[in-house]
Amino acid sequence: MTSGSAIGISTMRPCCRILCNYKSPSIFGFSPTKFSDSAIMGMLTRSGHHKSNHRHRYNTCDSQIVGYINMINPNRRDFSVSGSNLGLVRDFSTSVCVNIGSFRPRVASLIPHVASDFRNHSTSVDSHAHDTSFEKIYIQSGLNVKPLVIEKIETDQSKLEEVSEEECDVSNDNLDNLKDLSENKVRREVSELEKEAWKLLRDAVVTYCGNPVGTVAANDSADKQPLNYDQVFIRDFVPSALAFLLNGEGEIVKNFLLHTLQLQSWEKTVDCYSPGQGLMPASFKVRTVPLDGSNEAFEEVLDPDFGESAIGRVAPVDSGLWWIILLRAYGKLTGDYTLQDRVDVQTGIRLILKLCLTDGFDMFPSLLVTDGSCMIDRRMGIHGHPLEIQALFYSALRCSREMLIVNDATKSLVAAVSNRLSALCFHMREYYWVDMKKINEIYRYKTEEYSTDAVNKFNIYPEQIPSWLVDWISEDGGYFIGNVQPAHMDFRFFTLGNLWAIVSSLGTTRQNQSILNLIEAKWDDIVAQMPLKICYPALEGEEWRIITGCDPKNTPWSYHNGGSWPTLLWQFTLACMKMGRPDLAQKAVDSAGKRLSVDRWPEYYDTRNGRFIGKQSRLMQTWTIAGFLTSKMLLENPEKASSLFWEEDFELLQNCVCMLSKASRRKCSRFASRSQFLV
Ligand code: GLC
């Protein structure tokens, strides 16, 4: 990366200015010719920046997070201009600091486009209210409460609410357990271990123009080759952010959210190609560069990496999803919802959604991505529809559904989000889930089925069931497999995706419970001596050679290939707390606590049992430190933890049932005969 490809955010301080990179004639990634709305053109004219044609420009702004018009309309439902599809038009009379990049009018064409995708899909639950084709759908809790049986989908909304209430009781039970647990605890002193972790976390903080904006990935002064570990990674910052938020420190998180939002506008190119505008960078670095034309003056600039420098040049699909998830968490934990209501922030959400919801060749609601587009950012055979991305996508959609301001301009997008949630949830529950029963079913699959009512829709050959799985899966356990493609199921257990399936309620209550049952039963394989394995089992021999491309970093039981990543601890804690099993999380946190500091907070561990510090593991890895602290604080604050996970949303379920029933019953034969969807 060069400083020429950097963006700086200006402040009042002379040393910190905006270094804008845009190409003529486009400004911040959009070309004026791509939109026609005169209002926006007018605004650009008024802002006086549109004529500028320099490769770099500086812009002086307010000392706060700047570059956007910080106009917050207290009326959540009324921020955009009605009668316009734009939904982006801002009140320029209140402009404080105008950064041309913040207009992002490309979105002008987004909403109608997305809306059109769903034009033919009813978004209304009521429209299917009289459909009785899905009688006898069983909704059963997995938490030892009496099974609920719905004889049919009622037309009456109150009936649905009855179910929701009963199901909610189940989760409230969980919450009560957690409360009891915390009430019995006398708030203890912060241990020496935590004090050390806090110090290290604070040492990892990166400032920009004097303000904290994130944490570096690793902060080991002895490391002579930090590569890009001295950058702020979006995904790595999430546990840091939660630690700060749970500790009552919101500023760094707010700064991070707003600065990364600005980076989203960055015009990025890989060779001659520009990826979508909503893409969030994998990471960014604060650089100090000479001020143009001066040898003495310097300024700080933010330099993002969208994958153009990353090993393998992979697009960080998860970054935008994590950004949305963190934005919601910020609101929940600080009570400050004005941030998510800001016009620029709303636009940022929409741009990310646009990238995710745009039509492609997809036949399924799951997101199609390249290998290495998430935490596993090297080739590991997870291209296609990897679980991790689907679970984060589902979570981000649920967050967006809560945060998007509904008005005329956004209602079709909101409907699209709801439809996708319903379809994705059905798809994952139905096709990714395996347990003893399902594996037995696959074992007896007929193949080469042609027709819409095939049972073996993906034409999976039973011989694909790996031998390790047959003995491994526990009687009461189950999990979402890593990937589903034509004639291919990736049966590996991927931890992050399964944990987020629990946290976001992508799985049913029973499925979520079964995942934890499996982890408990297979503790030595999944948690072992250092929580938790990134995936199980490792690829070995020929498989390793072909699938990883002979990657020496991803040798069996190392790094992404079955290595143990302590950062997964906080997500495990959250999932356990949601399911009323804080004891499991506590056990894992205790065992990690015995080694992390002694081992100098490694990034990952190697070997089947997670006994050795990873071959190429960084030390003083920030998300290891922050993940540990966050786990501790979540366990102590069950109520706060509960604001970070979701319960089943029955409206989404009903929406899906309605969509399925609208299609011909024959097409949903699996569903009609035996569905896991609601069980
Ligand atoms: C490695 C990990 C990635 C992480 C980065 C920074 O590349 O695979 O998930 O974000 O390091 O810690």
From TrEMBL:
It catalyses: Hydrolysis of terminal non-reducing beta-D-fructofuranoside residues in beta-D-fructofuranosides. InterPro entries: 6-hairpin_glycosidase_sf (IPR008928), 6hp_glycosidase-like_sf (IPR012341), Glyco_hydro_100 (IPR024746). Coiled coil: none annotated. One of its GO terms (cellular component) is mitochondrion. It holds the Pfam family Glyco_hydro_100. It is an enzyme of class 3 (hydrolase). Gene3D superfamilies: 1.50.10.10. GO terms for biological process: sucrose catabolic process. This is Alkaline/neutral invertase. It comes from Sphenostylis stenocarpa.
